[in-house]
Design brief:
27 strands; 5-stranded antiparallel sheet; single chain; alpha/beta
Length: 709
C-alpha cells in the first residue's frame, strides 16, 4: 500500500486573494480541518486551517479580508509516491493534523490526515489478517495458536481434522484441557523454541515444533505446528517399496536369457542387464549415459525413439553374426520417452522346438477361449435392448413390459416353446429396481413332484428321512429381495399351487417340517406355453392362482407371425457365433434366405438360432448357402418357390434357383477350399485359418472330419 492509495483526492482549494467568507463556506462544506492555498500558477502557497480561522475571528476582522493575511505558510508537503512505512514515519513528523500531498512537479494532488492514516491502518490490518488466516488454513500441516495465558485463539482446518477439534467450540479454552500433554508453558515462560518434539493424541503420532510469538521482546503467545509422522512413515515405506521394486526389476533383468538395453528420449543408455554387458564385454560404468550407437553396432534404438514405430524380430548383424532383435518404443502420455531393445541368442533348432510347443499350447488356449465365450454368452444378463425385433406388435409388447418392469405386480408371460419367455423375464428383472438383487429361476416341469415342495420352500433340520440336520434354504429364500421366475407354471402340481397362492398373497410361507412363518419380499414372474384358461376349466389348474398370476399378461407371438424378424435375427446370430467360433461369416445367400422365410418355425427363435449355428459349423465361406441348411428345411421348399415372387427375407429381392445339396459335393468343395488355403499359407495352419476366416481349432476339426491329415 502506498500514500496515493490512502490520500483524499476530492477536496477544495483556496487562492491567496479569496476572502475569509469564501474560506468559511469551503471549510464548512468540505468538513475538513484545513484547505490548501494555491498560487496563481497552481503551486502550493500554504494551508488555511480552522485554527487560522479562529485566530482571524479573534481580531474581529471583516469577512471580506483575504485569507493571505491569515493562512499558514509553513505547510508540510508529502510526496504521493511514499510507501506505507514511509508514510507512517512522515506522519510522526507532521505538527498539524492535515498534510498536503504533491506530485513530482510540486502540484497539489491530495490531502492526507492522521484519521485517514488510522483508517488505512485498520484496512491494512484486516487485509493482513485475512491473508494470514488464508495461509494458515491452506497449510498442509496442523497449526494451533495460543495467547500468553495458554488459551486457544486459533486452529487451522488441518489441525481440526487431525485431532477432531472444532475451532468454534474450543476457542478461548486452555490448550492443556483440549490437548493434554502438549505443554506449551515452557515456550510461553522462556520464549525458547522447541523443535522436533513428539506428541501423541489417540492413534495419531505427530512431530511438533513450538515457537513463541514476541512483541517488542515480550512473549504474547505461541504457535505449535504438527507433522503427522504416520504420513511420513507411509512416504518412507513407499520409497522403500520403490527401491525394493527397482532391485527386484534389476534382478529379474539380470537373470533373463536375452540381452536387454533401455535408452531415454535422447538415445542415451539408462538401463542394461547383466546378459547385455556380458554380450558386449563391457562394464556398466562404460555404457551408462552413452549414445546407444556408440555402445552397440548397427543399433536402431535411437531411430525407434524418433519414429515411435516398433521393430519386432528384426535381424541385426553384430560382429558379423546375425541376431534376432526386437525394438519397442516406451510411450507415456502419448509421448515417446525412450525405447527398449532385446537381443535373442537361442539357436535355430531351439526356436523351432519352442515354436512347435507354443503352437500346441495355442491350440488348447483357443479351444478354452471358445468354450469360455460360449459360457459368457449364456451367463450374461439379458436386457430389452438385446431383444431383436422390427415387428410392430412385438415392439408394443416390449414397451408394455418396460412399464411393467417398474412395478411390483406379478407378470404372466405366455407363448410357444422357443419364443424367448425366459429372456423376456430376465429383461423385466434387469429393467426393474430389483436388478441388483437375485434372479432365481424355477422350472416347475423339471423338478420331480415329490421334491418340488422342499426345493421351493426349503425344509427344517430332520424334516424327513435323508434331510440334512442343518436344514436347507429353498428357492424362495434365495430370491428374497429379488425376482422369482416360475417357468412352465402350468406343470406345477395342484398340491403346491395352494401354497404358492399364499406366498403370492401374503409374501409368507413355512418351510417343510417347520411351523415358523418366514416372510419374504419377492417379485414373481411366471411363464407357460400352455393355455392356462383351458387348464382352469378342466380342473388341472387353480382358478384363484390363475387370476393371481395373470395381473400383467405378456403374450409373445410365435416367429411365424412376425416373419419380418427373421432377417435381423439371422444377422444377430451370425455376429454372436462369429465371436464364439472366431469366424467371419457375414451374409446368407438369397436362396437360403428364402428357405428360412418360407419355413413355419415350430421351434420359433430357438430353432432359428440352432439352424444358424449348424450352418456356420458347416460353412468355410463368408456366406451361408442353402446347402448348409438342415435337410428338413430344404425338402419343404421346392426350387420354384424360392424366387422373388414367393418372397424371401426381403420381398423385393430376386433369388436364383436352389443349388443341389448333395453332401459329398459340399464336403468336396470344403476340402478344395481348405487345400487352397493351406497351399497359399505354405502349410501354416494359423495363416490358413486366418485366410478362411475361422479359428485354428475349428480348422483342425474340419481337417480331421474331412480326412485331410
Amino acid at each position: 500500500m502506498r500514500l496515493e492509495d490512502m490520500m483524499t483526492t476530492n477536496f477544495a482549494t483556496l487562492k491567496a486573494d479569496d476572502s475569509l467568507q469564501d474560506a468559511v463556506k469551503l471549510l464548512r462544506n468540505s468538513k475538513r480541518d484545513g484547505l490548501p492555498v494555491l498560487n496563481d500558477d497552481g503551486s502550493l502557497a500554504g494551508i488555511f486551517t480552522k485554527t487560522n480561522l479562529y485566530d482571524s475571528l479573534l481580531e474581529n476582522p471583516s469577512l471580506d479580508r483575504p485569507v493571505s493575511d491569515f493562512y499558514n505558510r509553513n505547510v508540510v508537503k508529502i510526496y504521493k509516491g511514499l510507501t506505507y512505512d514511509e508514510v507512517i514515519e512522515a506522519v510522526r513528523k507532521i505538527p498539524v493534523g492535515t498534510g498536503v500531498v504533491v506530485d513530482s512537479d510540486d502540484r497539489v494532488v491530495g490531502l492526507f490526515t492522521k484519521v485517514e492514516l488510522i483508517t488505512s491502518l485498520f484496512k491494512e490490518e484486516r487485509l493482513l489478517n485475512t491473508r494470514l488466516n488464508a495461509m494458515c488454513q491452506a497449510m498442509h500441516n496442523a497449526l494451533v495458536s495460543v495467547d500468553e495465558k495458554g488459551r486457544i485463539n486459533f486452529i487451522n482446518m488441518a489441525a481440526g481434522q487431525l485431532f477432531s477439534i472444532d475451532h468454534g467450540q474450543v476457542r478461548g479454552k486452555f490448550l492443556d484441557e483440549i490437548m493434554p500433554g502438549l505443554d506449551m508453558r515452557k515456550v510461553l515462560e522462556t520464549g525458547l523454541v522447541e523443535i522436533g518434539a513428539e506428541y501423541t493424541s489417540g492413534d495419531t503420532t505427530t512431530m511438533v515444533n513450538k515457537t513463541p510469538l514476541l512483541d517488542g521482546g515480550r512473549v504474547v503467545g505461541a504457535i505449535a505446528i504438527f507433522q503427522d509422522i504416520t504420513e511420513l512413515e507411509s512416504i518412507a515405506e513407499e520409497m522403500g517399496t520403490v527401491k525394493r521394486l527397482n532391485r527386484t526389476l534389476q534382478t529379474v533383468l539380470d537373470i533373463g536369457y536375452d540381452a536387454l538395453v533401455v535408452v531415454d528420449e535422447n538415445g542415451l543408455v539408462v538401463l542394461v542387464n547383466r546378459t547385455f554387458l556380458d554380450f558386449i564385454r563391457l562394464e556398466e560404468e562404460a555404457v551408462m549415459n552413452r549414445p546407444i550407437s556408440e555402445v552397440l553396432q548397427n543399433s536402431r534404438l535411437h531411430v525407434v525413439v524418433k519414429t515411435g514405430i516398433p521393430e519386432i524380430n528384426d535381424i541385426q548383424f553384430i560382429d558379423g553374426k546375425p541376431y534376432v532383435v526386437s525394438r519397442l518404443p516406451i510411450v507415456r502420455d502419448r509421448q515417446v520417452i525412450g525405447a527398449v531393445g532385446k537381443i535373442s541368442f537361442r539357436r535355430v533348432d531351439e526356436l523351432r522346438s519352442l515354436a512347435a510347443r507354443l503352437e500346441a499350447m495355442n491350440s488348447r488356449l483357443v479351444h478354452f477361449q471358445e468354450e469360455l465365450k460360449k459360457a459368457r454368452f449364456q451367463e450374461r444378463p439379458f436386457h430389452f435392448e438385446d431383444i431383436v425385433t422390427i415387428n410392430p406388435a412385438m415392439q408394443a409388447l416390449i414397451s408394455e413390459a418396460r412399464q411393467a418392469a417398474q412395478g411390483l405386480s406379478t407378470v404372466l408371460i405366455s407363448g410357444e416353446s422357443g419364443v424367448g419367455k425366459e429372456l423376456m423375464a430376465q429383461a423385466i428383472h434387469q429393467e426393474s429396481p430389483r436388478s441388483g438383487a437375485p434372479f432365481v429361476k424355477v422350472n416347475c416341469a423339471a423338478i420331480p413332484e415329490n421334491l418340488l415342495e422342499s426345493e421351493f420352500f426349503g425344509y427344517a433340520g430332520g424334516a424327513f428321512t435323508g434331510a440334512m440336520k442343518s436344514g436347507k434354504e429353498g428357492l424362495l429364500d434365495r430370491a428374497d429381495g429379488g425376482t422369482l421366475f416360475l417357468d412352465e407354471i402350468g406343470d406345477m402340481p395342484l398340491s403346491l399351487q395352494g401354497k404358492l397362492l399364499r406366498v403370492l398373497q401374503d409374501q409368507a410361507y413355512e418351510r417343510v417340517g417347520d411351523t415358523k412363518t418366514v416372510r419374504v419380499n419377492i417379485r414373481f414372474i411366471a411363464a407357460t406355453n400352455q393355455d392356462l384358461e383351458n387348464k382352469v376349466l378342466d380342473g388341472s389348474f387353480r382358478k384363484d392362482l390363475f387370476y393371481r398370476l395373470n395381473v400383467i399378461p405378456i403374450p409373445i407371438p410365435p416367429l411365424r407371425q412376425r416373419a419380418e424378424d427373421i432377417k435381423p435375427l439371422v444377422f444377430a446370430f451370425l455376429n454372436k457365433y462369429n465371436e464364439i467360433f472366431g469366424m467371419q461369416v457375414s451374409d446368407i445367400a438369397p436362396e437360403a434366405a428364402a428357405v428360412l422365410r418360407l419355413y413355419s418355425w415350430p421351434g420359433n427363435v430357438r430353432e432359428l438360432e440352432n439352424v444358424i449355428e449348424r450352418a456356420m459349423n458347416l460353412s468355410v465361406e463368408e456366406v451361408i448357402g442353402i446347402e448348409h441348411l438342415p435337410p428338413h428345411l430344404r425338402s419343404g421348399c421346392p426350387a420354384a418357390s424360392l424366387t422373388g415372387q414367393q418372397g424371401g427375407l426381403d420381398s423385393q429381392e430376386t433369388f436364383a434357383p436352389a443349388v443341389p445339396a448333395y453332401r459329398w459335393e459340399r464336403e468336396e468343395r470344403e476340402r478344395e477350399t481348405i487345400r487352397k488355403a493351406l497351399k497359399q499359407s505354405a502349410g501354416n495352419k494359423s495363416e490358413a485359418a486366418r485366410i478362411l476366416g475361422m479359428s485354428r481349432s475349428w480348422l483342425y476339426q474340419k481337417i480331421d472330419r474331412l480326412g485331410l491329415k
